[in-house]
């Protein structure tokens, strides 16, 4: 019965006639110019920890964003294990010019979410954080009231002080039947008209990517929102989107199908409509991937280079909008360990920041520059202290 309802919901998701804005965004917001630090011709790679040694038995699913002040903000979830009732969402801040992350701050757990949403909440999960064009910081996170992750709903919190305090949660109604099975993982694109294009995905009955278009209202409210489906391709989830030149956008996808290849799709109208996803040359062991357009125009991705397992984490680069890839440095590798759920941003100084799950025990942060990246797949031997 539940599966039947969600199949029907999937077929008509995104058809809400009450949404005012039914046209494609005209353009995406350009990235701010980078002020490259003095001496950046020398390779730099630095490792730090987002989470302290004693924080939670299991941590996972980090995301980061650049704040208007120049600080970095990270979010992740931690508890006894993924999906446990004691899991909570935490944030930490890396102040501009500093090397140590602040102590974790709990933002929302199942009890807080239940109170704010006025409904039963079984657990919380994936979250993303990002600033909008007005400087407000958004957190979009997953909550589950019934079943597993396929029973998820999405909720929004807003911060006016760069993540130090947050508004109460607002639940988004994205599917007409029971409002189940929409999840989030990766960062959005921002349109010049103010709309936010957030990649999301559906995971019950059918598994496929979607785009959630949010229109901010006055005073940090959500004026309107709608979901648009991509071409039907069962087994592809957790889309990561990368703006290209003009009106083009690249999407790379996690592959849960038996083929186990990273997939790519393209939009020619700023993420409004998409091509059929096609396999790339890179493997994907049913694991999250993230992409970023560098200020020199190349595309950088971070992924698990394997047909199965998450024992390594590697970078790759493309100079032709994701059609071909050149191997980049190795970030981590160890037998029978897990390095997963990576997230990339580029700072105002041109340095690149990566966070990821380190053996499900901690969230790790790696900072590097283009000089280190362009050394190729030599990897880890030059680590700044």
Give a written overview of the molecule:
This protein has helices at 2-12, 110-117, 370-373; strands at residues 45-49, 58-66, 72-79, 88-94, 105-109, 123-131, 137-144, 152-159, 170-172, 182-184, 189-190, 196-202, 208-216, 222-229, 236-243, 249-255, 261-267, 278-283, 290-293, 299-303, 312-318, 326-333, 339-346, 352-358, 362-368. Residues 1-19, 31-39 and 379-385 have low confidence and may be disordered. The chain has three helices and 25 strands. Strands 10, 11, 12, 13 and 14 form a five-stranded antiparallel β-sheet that branches. Strands 1-25-24-23 form a four-stranded antiparallel β-sheet. It is globular. 6% of the residues lie in helices and 43% in strands. It has one domain: Neuraminidase (6 Propeller). 46% of the residues are buried. Strand 2 and strand 3 (72-79) form a beta hairpin. The chain is mainly beta and 385 residues long.
Question: TL;DR of this structure?
Answer:
With 385 residues, the protein is mainly beta.
- CATH names the topology as Neuraminidase
Structural class: mainly beta
How many domains, in number, for the residues? 1
CATH architecture: 6 Propeller
The value of Rg in angstroms is 19 Å
Task: Name the poorly predicted regions.
Answer: 1-19, 31-39, 379-385
- 3D shape: globular
> Largest sheet, if any?
5 strands, antiparallel
Helix content: under 10%
H/E element sequence: HEEEEEHEEEEEEEEEEEEEEEEEEEEH
């Amino acid at each position: 019965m539940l599966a039947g309802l969600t199949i029907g919901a999937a077929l008509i998701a995104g058809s809400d006639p009450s949404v005012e804005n039914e046209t494609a965004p005209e353009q995406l917001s350009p990235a701010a110019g980078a002020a490259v630090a003095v001496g950046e011709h020398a390779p730099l790679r630095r490792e730090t920890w987002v989470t302290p040694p004693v924080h939670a038995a299991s941590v996972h699913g980090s995301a980061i964003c650049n704040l208007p002040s120049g600080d970095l903000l990270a979010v992740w979830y931690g508890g006894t294990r993924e999906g446990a009732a004691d899991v909570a969402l935490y944030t930490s801040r890396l102040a501009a010019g500093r090397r140590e992350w602040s102590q974790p701050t709990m933002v929302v757990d199942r009890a807080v979410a239940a109170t704010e949403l006025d409904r039963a909440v079984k657990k919380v999960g994936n979250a993303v954080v990002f600033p909008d064009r007005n400087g407000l910081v958004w957190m979009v996170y997953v909550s589950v009231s019934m079943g597993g992750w396929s029973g998820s709903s999405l909720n929004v919190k807003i911060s006016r002080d760069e993540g130090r305090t947050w508004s109460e949660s607002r639940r988004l109604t994205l599917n007409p039947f029971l409002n189940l099975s929409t999840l989030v993982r990766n960062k959005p694109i921002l349109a010049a008209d103010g709309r936010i294009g957030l990649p999301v995905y559906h995971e019950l009955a059918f598994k496929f990517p979607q785009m959630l278009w949010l229109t901010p209202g006055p005073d940090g409210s959500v004026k309107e929102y709608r979901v648009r489906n991509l071409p039907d391709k069962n087994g592809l989830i957790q889309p990561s989107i990368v703006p290209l030149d003009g009106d083009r956008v690249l999407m790379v996808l996690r592959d849960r199908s038996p083929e186990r290849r990273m997939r790519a799709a393209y939009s020619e109208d700023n993420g409004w409509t998409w091509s059929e996803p096609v396999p790339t040359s890179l493997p994907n062991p049913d694991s999250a991937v993230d992409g970023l357009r560098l200020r020199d125009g190349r595309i950088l991705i971070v992924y698990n280079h394997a047909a199965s397992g998450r024992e390594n984490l590697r970078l790759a680069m493309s100079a032709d909008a994701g059609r071909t890839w050149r191997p980049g440095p190795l970030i981590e590798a160890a037998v029978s360990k897990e390095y997963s759920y990576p997230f990339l941003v580029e700072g105002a100084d041109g340095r690149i920041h990566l966070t990821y799950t380190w053996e499900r025990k901690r969230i790790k942060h790696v900072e590097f520059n283009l000089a280190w990246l362009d050394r190729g797949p030599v990897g880890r031997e030059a680590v700044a202290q």
